[in-house]
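Friendly challenge for the regulars: who can give me the structure tokens for this chain first? No prize, just bragging rights.
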Amino acid sequence: MAEAELRRRYSVGGLVQGVGFRPFVYRLARELGLSGSVRNTAAGAAIEVEGSHEAMSAFAMRLPSDLPPAARILLMETTDLAPAGLTGFTIEASTRDAAPSASVLPDLATCAECSAEIADRAERRYRYPFTNCTNCGPRFTIVLRLPYDRANTTMSGFAMCHTCRAEYEDPTDRRFHAQPIACPRCGPQVALWEPDGSEAAAGDDAIAGAVEALRRGLVVAVKGLGGFHLMCDATSCAAIGRLRSAKRRGEKPLALMVRHLADANALADIDATEAAALTSPVSPIVLLRARKPSPISPLVAPGNPYLGVMLAYTPLHIILTGDFCGPLVATSGNRIDEPICTDERGALDRLSGLADLFLVHNRPIARHVDDSIMAVMSAREIVMRRSRGLAPLPVPMPSLSRATLAVGAHLKNAIALGASGMAYTGQHIGDLDTPESMRAFRRSVADLPALYEQQIETVACDLHPDYASTRYAEAMSGELAPVQHHHAHVLSCMAENDLRGDVLGFAWDGAGMGLDGTAWGGEALVASEKAFARFAALRPFPLPGADTAARRPWRSALGLLVAAVGLDGACSAMSALRHGLDARQLRIVAARAAAGAGSPLTSAMGRLFDGVSFLAGGRSAAHFEGQAAMEFEWAADRSATGHYDLPLEHDGPVRWIDWRPLLAAVQDDRASGVPLGIISMRFHRALADMAARVVVAAGLRRVAVSGGCFQNRLLLELVIAAVEAEGATVYTQRHVPPNDGGIALGQLYAVAGRTVDPSH
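First reply, four minutes later:
Bragging rights claimed.
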């Protein structure tokens, strides 16, 4: 007697479009002798299969376990149907029966198969800069609308040749429905331009010309996947000096690009987790401890023990770095505080004076996407900047039913869209301080909801009224949902880790507006997705010059001293440091701080770092945000013993973390000639010890840490060790940065928990 047949429908959501999911289903069904079909839908993919019990059981088991490398199933519903006598298995045309909710895939680094083709003279795509397949290549940077079909991408203007069409339509080929499929005959092309826009060379000659220019110490602007890089020889002090001067980039580190993992190993010490990150489809910039001695110019990362290194991740970069045979600086193609350039004609103007030549191509870029940045801390991958390879990957948020746009913070801005139980996180935009960055912000605010065809019902923003993102949100239609900055930090970590209910959240950063109007930033919050309460915080101190103190650590030190020992004591202590600052100016600034003029109160941990680092012998002025604190961390002598005292004062509902004994001890140590490295280590240990005591006092065993201060490796390692020694579990960010780039995700989680009332 013949075995009875079953028929089942699968509705699949997640990363299932543009990743070879349909041909995978086709091959699996054919292998198991099943009949039916698979097609793309607005929500993801729809599968219908019919066959024997045994074959259907095997299909159900292997569907989620044997996925293509870039595919990921986030949602799957199954419906049993009556057998219909289906014959054969087909891949059907895409359908649109609702607003799209299928996840757009990020751009993926070139896979091993495509890399091999580029290097093989016998292949028709030998040295072709736009080689790709369903396992790699552009996605987010070319898609214009969903579903992800070629007609809906910036590749629509390139008609496939006969050979590419045959590959595209063959379900057994790895280029089946690879939307950016192209070859030298029918696809995009490269050209080398002079600064006036005239063409100096085309095709492979253009790449050869760019390589020769790099060898001569010139700066070449290279149009890549999500925008331009400014590239030069990473061993040439002259080239890097010219680039830094033209870009006005001071001492902020520059990213490096190399061809192979072995090349990265020659520059830095790399562990297994870092190697996995470097070679992943994300192919981010990874912060690696530099080897000594190093062939890299000291101007790449002055005074920094780490190098930001990425592997060549597009065919163009693979060919370029392979021909150059050495490390290249590959920094974002922009001027200071501007978004990355994406258009070749616009780049001629915006990068004028920065680049000597332009290596361009004619594939349009739909949206700017910078390189993502990661670091491995405590064996955990921590995202510092979420962009290429990661955006717009969603974080499941089933409790979010309303179409919500979260506009993020003012610094390191990134937005997020909540729709259909998912939080789609946008790419890095940057600080919203210039007209150019605001234009990029407005484009993203319009672009992300349009991509998913969402009519925004709620707009979530920061509580700070002066943030450019907040002001923009206030002018938008829809219900406004302000969310306190540090609650959003904690919620961001909670959302990633699927935490509900009360946690103890440490939110340590530079500053954010608190409920009392002061600048918070050294907070321990008892927080849930529905509400929060301030459990502990740094004792507030005046911040002379407000935001300008972020680049002038001596101002933070002066504010701490004024709060600790008064006006005269502060001036006397600063004068004793022999720091070269003008005594009269110090007195004026100190007097204003004592009077509260232009000196808002703050509890920011970032400013405590700045002030203590200065008093310990660190720098008085920073070239970029966080530089003083970073150098203080790098200086730490891990063999040092002891730690400073940070007592908790229980005064009303908030326990104040009293930094005054620590400040006095730091001053005593410096006066006694104790080295900076020992002071730094004792300071970091003091913070970890304090965190553990706060955990014990709060009585909570789930601890979420977020905020820019937790980009500090030493601090994070010590806090995790100290807190977990008390029996608690520490949760960190995994998908979005702990800095303000992760704020938008927390804002969405606040809306999902209906915590939009700032009085909570």
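The mean pLDDT is 94. The first strand starts at residue 5 and ends at 15. Your move, everyone else.
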